[in-house]
């Protein structure tokens, strides 16, 4: 799936202490579990601000959700997504939220129709709990 870049100092704070460094592999697995993304059988390695994830998932959407859940945490600048999907689909695009963005605005830019914002919301569940709860620096999946 490849390398995905994130904003290192923006994202979910999942552990106490020094927020400038990435969480440990175990803490990141707990974060995946919190979102209902099965971390069992995944190999997660943290090297500074880079996370490498390997293993198998049922589909491409799950592999992409795992990558963005890992990357949207404080201290992570890159995720090298080496997950293999049993049912490979077209890979999504990724979009980094900027100040003033809404899912409707992003949908208008990406799809030409602001009313398609629910496609983006659904593609990013369970990491997004509400269509209005996005923040600058957050990386979102944009399905094709």
TrEMBL record:
Any stretches that span the bilayer, and where are they?
none
Give a Gene Ontology cellular component term annotated to this protein.
cytoplasm
Task: Extract the signal peptide range.
Answer: none
Report keywords, A-Z: Cytoplasm
Q: Where is the BON domain?
A: 19-87
Keyword Cytoplasm assigned to the entry: answer is: yes
Residue limits of the LysM domain? 93-142
The answer to whether the entry has keyword rRNA-binding is no
Q: Which domain of life is it from?
A: Bacteria
Give a Pfam family name: LysM
Q: Where in the cell is it found?
A: Cytoplasm
- Name the InterPro entries on file: Bact_Kbp, BON_dom, LysM, LysM_dom_sf
**Which PANTHER family does the protein's record reference?**
POTASSIUM BINDING PROTEIN KBP
Q: What is this protein called?
A: Potassium binding protein Kbp
The gene designation is ygaU
């Amino acid at each position: 799936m490849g390398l995905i870049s994130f904003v290192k100092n923006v994202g979910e704070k999942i552990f106490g202490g020094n927020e400038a460094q990435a969480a440990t592999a175990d803490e990141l697995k707990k974060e995946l579990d919190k979102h209902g993304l099965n971390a069992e059988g995944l190999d997660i390695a943290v090297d500074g601000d880079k996370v490498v994830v390997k293993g198998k998932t049922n589909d491409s959407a799950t592999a992409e959700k795992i990558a963005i859940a890992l990357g949207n945490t404080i201290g992570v600048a890159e995720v090298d997504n080496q997950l293999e999907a049993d049912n490979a689909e077209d890979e999504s695009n990724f979009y980094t939220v900027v100040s003033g963005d809404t899912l409707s605005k992003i949908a208008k830019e990406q799809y030409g129709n602001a009313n398609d914002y629910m496609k983006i919301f659904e593609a990013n569940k369970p990491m997004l709990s509400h269509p209005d709860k996005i923040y600058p620096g957050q990386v979102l999946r944009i399905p094709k």
